[in-house]
Amino acid sequence: MTTRLYRHSLFAEHLTGPDHPERPERMAAVEAVLEAEPFQHLDRAEAPEGTTEQVLLCHPHDYVRQLARVIPTEGLARIESDTIVSPKSFTAALLAVGAACAGVDDVVEKRADNVFVAARPPGHHAERATAMGFCLFNQAAIAARHAQSAHGLSRVAIIDWDVHHGNGTQDIFRSDPSVLYASTHQMPLYPGTGAKSETGAGNIFNAPLREGEGSDEFRDAFRSVILPAVEAFHPDLLIVSAGFDAHWRDPLAGLKLTEHDFDWATAQLLDAAYRHCDGRLVSILEGGYDLDALGRSVARHVERLIVG
Description:
Helix content is about 40%, strand content about 15%. It has about 300 residues and is α/β, with parallel strands linked by helices. The longest helix is centred in the first third of the chain and has 20 residues, at about 90-110. The radius of gyration is 17 Å and the shape is globular.
């Protein structure tokens, strides 16, 4: 199998200030584990910069212009309570978009079996016209739209296992049955969305977990909600919003997963991808704020992508 890794040195130049959990050291933790022996045959590529046209697939012109205007020439600027930007943040967000779209191109055009995008800032909280939750552009949503507009794919499934619900992705696709959004997440927790009753146009499947729940409950949610939704949808492409902050070590939430759970979930989604879409799967880094847990979880996730 060929697994492609997208990365870029500029992802570490998106600065968020001291003590912010979404910090540049996250990239260093990911880079460090992926330099180990099991990953020497990763197909490594530099993230290309996303285009305005790609961003506009999910975000309106006014929002993009407004976001560009708040980027400071030096120092830091606060968009909202916990979303902070610095001079390189807008470019970093464009690179994250470009990498996600390039990953779609790679799996559709058979340059890779699957792709992992190691990028920041994360994206799944970004709504159509709102930056929030550390997120500027919603690269998973943009990648799904890119798959449809550039490659003519009819049905794209986005699976989100970040501990925080991807309100942005749900917002973008809540009335569009051509995109499935299925999420496991802790609830109640930021951003306050993700109830089972939020079903959109029949394309939204939320499987909330309670604080303190762990492997058994997570795997049951996958088996009873997430995987049946994917099976019934018959996707042409799977996109994973791969946040690793449901790990028991993570400081921002209270689920009790281990890196073995992310390995297991990756294997389940790979099996589904082979059944429905010739193995096409693009995974995009979202959260994960304990550096040791993030590194170990990414290692298990990417190793599973490699071995299938």
